[in-house]
Amino acid sequence: MLDVGRKKILKKELHETIDMVVGDSENLPFDDNSFDAITVAFGVRNFANLDKGLTEIKRVLKPNGKLVILETSVPTKFPYKQGYRFHSSVILPIVGKLFSKDKVAYSYLSESANSFPFGEKFNNILLKNGFTTATDKPVTFGVASIYTATK
């Protein structure tokens, strides 16, 4: 993914502005108070230690900095909840096996989404880790949520 990103950056002549860095979510290679904003898309549910990763993000955010996270969630309203459950437990693993020959990889996707604390639970985790505000907005019928938090 980084190679693809580097190629896009070069093609758009943004290599003087954007730098691709490999890092560990629990030990970010940046100074305290370095960024005005940080975004994470479909990544925090894969942090080895969610609390440590979030406190590291908070550390490198400037005061009043914004964190915006796009992450999977589970629909809670009928009929989306039932449709999502069927799709993620039956359809997705079958399609995954057909295309990737690895049913486990696609099973992991639904399992990690189903076990991730979403909505108010995740807002509370953000607040527990030192963010001063935390809100969530379900999107795509609740299959994902956008979280916004402030340092």
Fold and architecture overview:
This protein is of the alpha+beta class. 42% of the residues lie in helices and 22% in strands. The chain is built from 5 helices and 4 strands. The chain has a 4-stranded mixed β-sheet. A hairpin with a 4-residue loop joins strand 3 and strand 4. The longest helix has 21 residues. The radius of gyration is 17 Å and the shape is globular.
Summarize, please.
The protein is of the alpha+beta class.
Topology at a glance:
Elements (H helix, E strand, L loop, with lengths): L1 H10 L23 E7 L8 H11 E12 L7 H21 L2 H13 L4 H9 L4 E7 L4 E7 L1
Q: Which keywords apply here?
A:
5 helices; 42% helix; 151 residues
Percent strand equals 15-25%
Order of helices and strands: HEHEHHHEE
Structural class: alpha+beta
Largest sheet: 4 strands, mixed
User: Largest sheet, order of strands side by side?
Assistant: 1-2-4-3
Number of strands: 4
Q: Taking Cα atoms only, what radius of gyration do you get, to the nearest Å?
A: 17 Å
Instruction: State the helical fraction.
Output: 40-55%
Number of helical regions: 5
Low-confidence stretches: none
Estimate the mean pLDDT confidence: 89
Coarse morphology: globular
Distance between the termini: 29 Å
